[in-house]
Amino acid sequence: MLGTVLRYCDSRREPFVRELSKLVRIPSVSFSGFPKEEVVRSAEAVAALLKKSGLENVKLLRLGNAHPYVYADWLHAPGKPTALLYAHHDVQPPGRENLWKSPPFKPTVRNGRLWGRGAADDKAGVMVHAASVESWLKADGKLPINVKIIVEGEEEIGSDHLEAFLKKHSKLLAADVMILTDTGNYDTGVPSITTSLRGLVAFDVTVKTADHPLHSGMWGGPLPDPIIALSKMIGSLTDAYGRIAVPGIYRNVKALTTLERKNYDALGYSERAFRKQSEILAGVKLVGGKSQPVAKMWREPALSINAIESSSRKNLSNVINEAAWCHVGVRIVPDMDPQQTAKLLKSHLKRVAPWGVKVEFGEVTTANWWRTPGEGPAFTAAKRALTAGYKRQAVMIGCGGTIPFVEPFANVLGGVPAVLVGIEDPYTNPHSENESLHLGDFHKSIRSSIYLYQEMAKLTPQQLKGG
């Protein structure tokens, strides 16, 4: 039975890549300013894919003006656990298209990888769910467990309507375990289960000194430059070691647990590995203090300036600009409070603003951190499945990114286990130019999901919820 399902999966290796490529061709950017109809088109394509895989009750779920979710299920395994599968079909903007080696929405296979925006984050996640379900239903006629799938359309913009969506559809989505394919593997070919996510606090900062630009020759000297003022403010946010220098920011940061430290130490992740994977320039030093790189990336707060602007290269002229703008983000960790973090950051920026410049803040967006012990029957089943699918021992890792969906959904479902499995690798470049998916790992992920349904079928719903 299982062998037949796996052989079917192997025979569909290339067709699964073609199906994924169809999704990647749709520019489903959920950000404001991009065509909403493309996100709708993406949702419709996902719905068609899920229906083709054999899932039932396929429908688009709409909530106000939010981008559409897609729902489907297969509920014909009485007495067996119900798994809620999650992925998202919206993608990041393409970024600087001149930096792409091939067009962002023209999926291209090159050097064993599929290149294109959303190829990994997270349309591959959608395809892993669809392909594993299809393999069971087409080869065996049934699934060993009950399955529900929800594919979100606004994850990349912070899941703004999630609370209202959950309130409306909590009964429809009730399950014994969540399985999410929106995280990364520790390395190419190394199957990984993510047990922690950092949260995010972000907002705009605008510094003003005048109501219009002024000639730098006529007025320069006594006139404060808002770019220099903002630069001083930004420079004060970190110390000489690159650690956040905002007073009180580390007050509630939870120390690594014994199990987390054991899991991190077992990876043996070195500065050399970080340099290889990040492709940081030679000679550039790592920052953030003395902690090991994985602890800095997964379980310590980090601050970044995501964008900064005042005039542009195209509009360059000899003026002192009237204003400067930046977008600041802080990745938060257990047990930091998002609102308190925003308050501390704003207070610091106001306090260090020089020369009486006017400082304005935009709306604060927040997403909380999440952590699970990573122990119990659900995680034991996942480790066995991933090890079988990849033919390599699965590891437990953290993730420096944010998935706003996880914590509120787990809470609404009564705290059921959330199993986060990887589809990306360190070379994927999600959110950046030249995003790509390792096709070998893509196939192994599908096989692992096939094994996972079989492993979870060995457990009762009560046992699964207990882990």
Keywords:
single chain, 467 residues, alpha+beta, Aminopeptidase, Alpha-Beta Plaits, nine-stranded mixed β-sheet, five-stranded antiparallel β-sheet, 15 helices, 35% helix, 22% strand, globular
Describe this structure in a few short sentences.
This protein is of the alpha+beta class and 467 residues long. The chain has helices spanning 2-11, 13-24, 36-53, 123-140, 162-169, 216-219, 226-235, 258-267, 271-278, 293-298, 338-352, 377-390, 406-412, 439-456, 461-465, and strands at residues 56-61, 69-74, 82-88, 108-110, 113-115, 146-152, 177-184, 192-197, 199-208, 214-215, 302-309, 319-320, 323-332, 358-361, 365-367, 370-371, 395-399, 418-424, 436-438. Strands 1, 2, 3, 6, 7, 8, 16, 17 and 18 form a 9-stranded mixed β-sheet that branches. Strands 9, 11, 13, 14 and 15 form a 5-stranded antiparallel β-sheet that branches. Strands 4-5-19 form a 3-stranded antiparallel β-sheet.
